[in-house]
Write a structure and sequence with these properties.
ten-stranded mixed beta sheet; 10 strands; alpha/beta; 2 domains; Spore Coat Polysaccharide Biosynthesis Protein SpsA, Chain A
């Protein structure tokens, strides 16, 4: 009889040989990690990442490796969702880490709870000239939620973060998800898409009836040059096109799933705030995408005076 698994950790791996061992060791150091499933999916790495995966699988019977051609992180995560055997799934990026003693809480909850998902906080680790520096950034710490362990609905999480914090955070590695809940609601990542978290996390939260929040900085997110969210200039156009698609699609999705809901103007206003931030951060107009910004939609959905001022600025510089 196959042993019951309560937690599967899916790690998409692509050319992260410098960081992969640190990531895996941080999870393996947590008490109870011998009882969880590790699913390392090598997405066609061209460095030594695949060999590192195999070496860990040879040393640990609860680590399984899948080697496949390169298809991108969305397809890789979807494969992990289908292949995982655990009651809960956690998607961990191969260049990041967890705090072992805090991650033990996640392992414990996966053994005893039945919530749709667990949610926790993160700290940022900046990589500069070979040195690591921590940054206390409240944005990745769900600023706006009470710092007490409790259970919310997903919609309530979003509402609290928008009304009392800096907006809700669309990052997949800040939570563990009940596999049957994801599959039952058909919540998969869109193949071939970057910034896939931005599309996936809102769908998960809006469908979640029970979200157990752990107010601890369990995750350590590494900010490094060349990553998807911190790209080199030559990749900027691809990123901008993806962001235009993601944000445009989310406006339509919210209209579809939240008709006449008081949350609708709040969540669309938050989306506009995030969209404007990325437009100005990446300077969409500099790469010829000024006309593709729906400025009328931004104006209609904006809720803050500063956002309206930024939109007025786009009429001047983004045409």
């Amino acid at each position: 009889m196959e042993k019951e698994i309560n937690l599967s950790i899916v790690v998409p791996v692509y050319n992260t040989e410098e960081y992969l061992a640190l990531c895996l060791d941080s999870i393996l150091a947590a008490k109870g990690s011998s009882g969880i499933e590790f699913l390392l999916i090598d997405d066609g790495s061209t460095d030594g990442s695949g060999k590192i995966c195999d070496s860990y699988a040879n040393a640990h019977e609860n680590i399984r490796v899948i080697h496949k051609k390169n298809e991108g992180i969305s397809t890789t995560r979807n494969l992990g969702m289908k292949e995982a055997r655990g009651k809960y799934i956690y998607f961990c990026d191969a260049d990041d880490m967890v705090v072992p003693v805090l991650f033990e809480k996640v392992i414990e909850l996966s053994n005893t709870s039945d919530e749709d998902m667990f949610l926790w906080d993160s700290e940022l680790i900046y990589e500069m000239n070979g040195l690591l520096a921590k940054k206390d950034d409240e944005y990745f710490a769900h600023y706006g939620l009470e710092k007490t362990e409790r259970t919310y609905t997903g919609k309530k999480i979003i509402e609290e973060l928008i009304l009392h914090g800096k907006g809700f955070i669309a990052t997949v590695w800040l939570g563990a998800y009940r596999r049957d809940f994801l599959l039952g609601n058909g919540i998969f990542f869109e193949d071939g898409l970057i910034y896939e978290d931005e599309m996936w996390v809102p769908k998960v939260l809006l469908a979640s009836k029970t979200v157990h929040y752990i107010p601890e900085k369990i995750y350590q997110y590494r900010v490094r040059k060349g990553s998807v969210t911190n790209p080199d200039k030559k990749k900027m156009q691809r990123n901008i096109e993806a962001l235009i698609y993601v944000y445009s699609s989310l406006y339509k999705y919210y209209d579809q799933v939240l008709p006449d809901d008081p949350l609708l103007p709040l969540i669309k206003g938050n989306l506009t705030k995030r969209y404007l931030h990325m437009i100005y951060k990446l300077r969409f107009w500099k790469y010829g995408y000024g006309k593709k910004i729906d400025k009328k939609l931004l104006w209609k959905t904006s809720r803050r005076m500063i956002d309206k001022m930024l939109i007025m600025g786009l009429y001047v510089i983004a045409h």
